Amino acid sequence: MALKIVKGSIDRMFDKNLQDLVRGIRNHKEDEAKYISTCIDEIKQELKQDNIAVKANAVCKLTYLQMLGYDVSWAAFNIVEVMSSSKFTYKRIGYLAASQCFHEGTDVIMLTTNQIRKDLSSPHQYDTGVALTGLSCFVTPDLARDLANDIMTLMSHTKPYIRKKAVLIMYKVFLKYPESLRPAFPRLKEKLEDPDPGVQSAAVNVICELARRNPKNYLSLAPLFFKLMTSSTNNWVLIKIIKLFGALTPLEPRLGKKMIEPLTNLIHSTSAMSLLYECVNTVIAVLISLSSGMPNHSASIQLCVQKLRILIEDSDQNLKYLGLLAMSKILKTHPKSVQSHKDLILQCLDDKDESIRLRALDLLYGMVSKKNLMEIVKKLMLHVDKAEGTTYRDELLTKIIDICSQSNYQYITNFEWYISILVELTRLEGTRHGHLIASQMLDVAIRVKAIRGFAVAQMATLLDNAHLLTGNTQRNGICEVLYAAAWICGEFSEHLEEPMQTLEAMLRPKVATLPGHIQAVYVQNAAKLFATVLRKHEGETDSQAAQETSQLLIDRLPLFVQSANLEVQERASCILQLVKYIQKLQQKNVEVAEEVTALFAGELNPVAPKAQKKVPIPEGLDLDAWINEPPSESESEDEKPKAVFTKEEHKHSRSRHTEVDEKELARRREARKQEQANNPFYIKASPSSQKVYDAPGVEHIPVVQIDLSVPLKVPGVPMSDQYLKLEEERRQKDKAERKKKEKKKKREKRGKGRKADSGPESEEDIRPAHQVDIVTEEMPENALPSDDDDKDPNDPHKALDIDLDKPLADSEKLPVRTHRPEVLKSPAEDRVHESIPQETKKRSGKEKKEKKKGKEKDRKRSKEEKKKKKHKEVEEELLESQPEEAVQSEETKEAAAPPTSAEASDLDFWLCSAPVPPAAQEETAPSSAAAVDTSSAAALESEPDEPKDAEPEDTKSSKHKKKKQKKEKEEKEKKKKKRHHHHHHHSDAGGEDSVQNGTVEEEEPLPPMSNYSLLAENSYIKMMKEDADQVYDIQGNHQDESKVVVSVIFENKSDSFLKSMEFNVMDSLNSKLQRPEGAGPHDSLTVPFQLPPGVSNEARFVFSVQSIVMPQKLKGTLTFIVKSDESSTHEKLDFKLHFTCTSYLITTPCYSDAYAKLLESGDLKGSSLRLEGISMPFHHLLARICFHHHFSVVERIDSCASMYSRSIQGHHVCLLVKTSDQTVSIDAKCDEPSLLGNVLDEIKQTFSKC
Amino acid sequence: MIKAILIFNNHGKPRLSKFYEHYTEDTEQQIIRETFHLVSKRDENVCNFLEGGLLIGGSENKLIYRHYATLYFVFCVDSSESELGILDLIQVFVETLDKCFENVCELDLIFHMDKVHNILAEMVMGGMVLETNMSEISTQAEAHSKMEKSEAGIAGAPARAVSAVKNMNLPEMPKNINIGDISIKVPNLSSFK
Fold it and tell me: Domain extents for chain A?
């Protein structure tokens, strides 16, 4: 047998493998294509063979050829064959090839479903891994639908390697099959707290990617992410989370407030630039989301800007680039802070790196002011001259125009200067942005009336020198400018000094080489100019000049009549005939000027680009309705529908058209007239718009005398510079004048009191050279507010905008293949099959009903309310007496869903407890207080009261808060149900009126429980230790060794700065502080932050523990330097770390079936405990055990509950807690008796304290 | 999301291309050409970020690249990725290649494109970063090659011998196209663990 294999492989060892192929291609450099085509022929032969090894080899070569750009889709079927090989090596080749060339259009993909499913459930983790990797590249909607459930199962695989891949691929599945998102989401969320950091990171990755597109659906996860952010040390995860918060904060400003502090701490403490940069970015996002009137945050902005400046000043170009990028984000909301770094940004403009220059340009946009605009633009113009690449030059050009035209030309003080800049820009050769300059020229000339005279003069010069612009190349984009020039000269020809000369220039034969649309404008405006010339010569006795003009047109226009461009031709021939007619009249000495001018009377107003869209549709106008009856496509077809539909309907529709009587018509006519009068677009009969010319205010606009000694017309001399000088002089003069005035004022005011000296010239002081009134763009009256969100309807993420908080319906469950046994039960299903005592079920089912009713009621809050309520109560009673099954099915549905609605309100709760800066609090005091109340009330109301439900979802951060609420609520619900559940209905909706009812209940709240206990304290510092709840079980890596993470909060109580904090612990045999590699066993750990006065921060220390059955005590010292203004002293603080056995327990959810099995197994040894005189309610008791001792409730029946927890070394601890008459008995079982004994002691201690 | 990962040499010859969105072969080649054109004309000491080309993605996307001796490693990413993070990821990728190939050079990539793909698959999956820990990536890659060897068993022996023989007479094969100094680090950028 072996011999046969060897023989077979010897046969094919002279087959070409991938290496041979590559080598061959390298050796045939001259005739590569030919060589490859022979190779492809060989491959085709190989694919025909039966031997899978040969096929795999061929497919491997095809993958290489695919990279070189050869289409290999013809081999898709062979790829599938290789994928299904049982050997890993070949399978991998197949999947690789598939991932490189399969896509949604590949038809053989549907053959792979079963193969992939088989691989996914393969016992070999690498088979599964390879299948997941491949699938991630070519998953289609069909594959996603069919495999979603299998992949979801893999998310709970025992191997982290598979788990992380399965988690990651879920994102692709969601994209292709959005229905899977809701059923899979609870498990995905669980994975955020997976013990393996890789899986955790993958889950963060997926949720971040989802949340980026539809952030509002993920707000409820904020507390969980917040906890992760403060606990994670993986920079990748941190960056992702911080980026996510950046996306969430715009939706929830309260979140932003909560974020600022930890982010600022991170900025101070981190050494990783990538993390620092993302923190700064998110802080910026937060600051943007908060309303601007937030004085408290100026410090944060300063910090960001400072850090960014450091980045920009760095010699590393990457940091410089990112610094500028982030700076531009601050710019939008806090331009002032950025403006102070103008020097730095201008410096970056000279950088040799184009990317950096472009970013600096972006920033300039926001840096300009009236004062420095000219200066900055001058600098940019210099760059334009120097720039070598056209792309960069074009970018500069657009930026100059952007900067100048921003916010309605706000910063331009002198439009003559701007026009000259635009004219100078026309000298750029080969730019693509001719049309941009042209539209600017048009815009300015139309909207700034005072500038028209100047603009016309400049445009006339341009037209005269058109040969400079058109140059040699036809495709030169700059000739677009001539379009604007011709139009401006024609439209505002009354400002022209020498209309005749311009007319001449416009009719030069060379014009015929311009693009058609420009010629058309030329022809049309030549006619306008003609009218002006005629008017000028009107009244002159000698009509020679006028007649010469007509002749000129008649001579030149035929050139345009022959144009190939239809528009040019039509206009030219029209105008030619007109001129010929005029000439005839002229010869008869008829005065025609008036009539010719009338042809072009009226002014064109600027219209906003969106105006057309914004015209509101008049009432009663249905744009989709037929004006006439739709024409029938064919007679015979028309007959049938008539027969099908009833005649009455037809009649009705017709009557609508005919029944409009005369009165109605008259009314409509009147309305239309009214509307036309108001409609700026409607061309009215009378040339009323002529009035614009003699509008008041234009005449007495002071137009600055231009120093004409500077030759305006010489091309090549940058004219804009003179304006810069002029402007400076003007400002100086202004300043001097102002000073004089101020002196006068001061003299006057001297008696009254001293006025603060007016410092440097401020923004407002700069008086514009022209008193320009910028005509705003017209919009139709009663235009609708802008609401067109240009969302891409094809965006695949749109489908993922799914409310994740709604309970899961039965229909939404992922398709499960029934003929294959489930490897793992999903927790959702587990819950359904659980044998929960009927009583509990019934209650919760009823409550759900109640809630529904509440919503309904709110919707129709009518007079009938009372009646209805009664009715409902009856209904409810009926419900109670209904057979169990009905309730149960209801319960099944609800229980399958995570209690996410509660989570949304938890978010509110979590956010409300955020330390709000005092000023902000004051500002929003009344409203936020109300919000707190309502939201917490809502939180109380809406949480379903199955204790077991909460544990898996429990976030560590809000653990105690949530539990507290839940217990309270549970109790309340019971009472309310009996007494006044109508209150309940109101408060459910969060209405203000019901807040009191929701919160002020007879039940006393649970005393606040804190995880933190005082560790040590002196006059400088306070250390609080959190019960080691962050326990990582990494048994897999280290035999018999487990790690415990201890969080310690350091709070600076003094007025001095604390730095160089060092934390040290005397190791015992059993427990050791984890020190970095290379450190000795007695070296201390540096606390990674410093503490300014009054600030607290949290640090985490990892201890390795060998045996966990006994509590441990470790002695430690904290040394630190107290630095005040005068001196700095070295201080030290001793403390004792107490590791209770409880701290080795991890809250682990357990399903009751598993719990029962565990107890049955008989491996556990029992012990029991009796507590006397416990007066607290049972649910408080349970909450305490859960909270302080990390247990979770498995099941609760009346005053009896079973609880479960697991130690980090995998010991099971089971409790059965019973209570009667102030006596609590706890029966406990554990596979490690000494551990159990210690845990019970600790529980006893907890209750003896209260 | 990572949209594409490209490796090409100083002459624009593709050494590895991985697109996480579907394009036709022609478009892929065009993208590689365009990217090469954009990247190759940049100086050595300018920043490693580029606004994306026209073909791949448009304004939302960025090209993040590193140049090692004869090879360009280019990642095309969208705005959800951290620029410096990706830069570090490229470093991790190259260092992993260096570890797996023992002093990686361009020839390794030329002749073992499949292996490079497999290593990449342990790091980036479907456009999302799967693993950033170098030792974890190389552990998995080694496990793969171990499985490969055990599967080949005796049957693989003759093929290996032949390929060794084939490789013997290759005097023209330049050995010195090393990827070069892979320890170029972004200052202050602590590497990801």
Answer: 1-101, 110-213, 215-293, 415-601, 1013-1139, 1141-1249
